[in-house]
């Protein structure tokens, strides 16, 4: 790996484009390096994972609306088009709209993979736009695997090196460039073209984090789909010779100087050297539970603690000692009263560790629908327990959150339960059970089981079998087989009939 120093350039400073971060990202994307077998296997796992969580969300409102919009945009004459989850494989739409609809389906339940470092990300959001373009242009599984590996590599590198959250910029600003880079790899584009696409994608996907604070709406699911859609459009424009703002990261009025750490900022972004394999996907991890990733380990801890806590009516307080990120984003340190409101949206409850910990402690379980049901959130005994749960930042958990040593890095915390008699129960957990270093790490069998669990009530068994057979052959798929990477219920879904502008 090469550690690239990223700094702001002065207005009059003459710097070669090869010194710009966008160019270095494009060089990685254009490098025709082979994909290692273990990376290929993980790409397959994540394609399966995305499809499972998409299946479970097919009839949810945001997904229905996005699918309706996609159905209004037919592919251009002479192009194959791309498939949309829920529709027959023969139904094709323009690729940017397929990426939009499928991206919302993948993201709606907050249930696919994650990578946390200086910033946050859900790298599986790269897959819908890259797949849509592959289907549109008649490419095969080998090209798709290489492209997805690039998308993950670029996103992981950016998340490690540049913190957006500290400046309240939404993490899709890392997704637009990574998806554009992945599409560049897919199409075998030259560095210059990918560079322009990355610049455009970054410039147009840099938005604020209000989408994940206060009253969190369905836009939380739409935001990454928007970035994927924009990435496709950016590559299309770059292919037509259209340029981007430059230097988009380092310019005097660029992203770093004006939206992030200011003109004196310095970042380090580590990227593979020429000829070095892209292995970033192996540092990412999926979710066993449908909730913000920083709650994963704490859900597991709550499930384990339930029997030991005993009578929950005798609990006077529960304090979660955890990292700054967990405390400030999904904990009481956010200052968001909505995190304690039983009338809050599902998206808000998904980002409330006091609510999540209370329900997991009471139920000994977490479910992507039942645990968020309005009736569940408004149970009096749940509300009473929920209001007793707070978070505090513990500097050591913050240090472990940012630690580069995988054996020390942690996303959990320590819980202190105090009872009415003054006794306390203390326990802690470092990583989720499903994490690669957890109690029950996810492998292929667990990805398949998660897919079956989520798709079982939505797809006939034969459709589940068909999809999994195609997905597990991903590197060998011919272009005409790539349409098999979709999901079709019986009967297939149709447009909802709701009118909009399109």
UniProtKB/TrEMBL annotation:
Residues 289-474 form the MmgE/PrpD C-terminal domain. SUPFAM superfamilies: 2-methylcitrate dehydratase PrpD. InterPro entries: MmgE/PrpD_sf (IPR036148), MmgE/PrpD_sf_1 (IPR042183), MmgE/PrpD_sf_2 (IPR042188), MmgE_PrpD (IPR005656), MmgE_PrpD_C (IPR045337), MmgE_PrpD_N (IPR045336). Pfam families: MmgE_PrpD_C, MmgE_PrpD_N. Residues 20-265 form the MmgE/PrpD N-terminal domain. Gene3D superfamilies: 2-methylcitrate dehydratase PrpD. It comes from the Bacteria. Belongs to the PrpD family. This is MmgE/PrpD family protein. It comes from Frankia umida. The lineage of its organism: Bacteria, Bacillati, Actinomycetota, Actinomycetes, Frankiales.
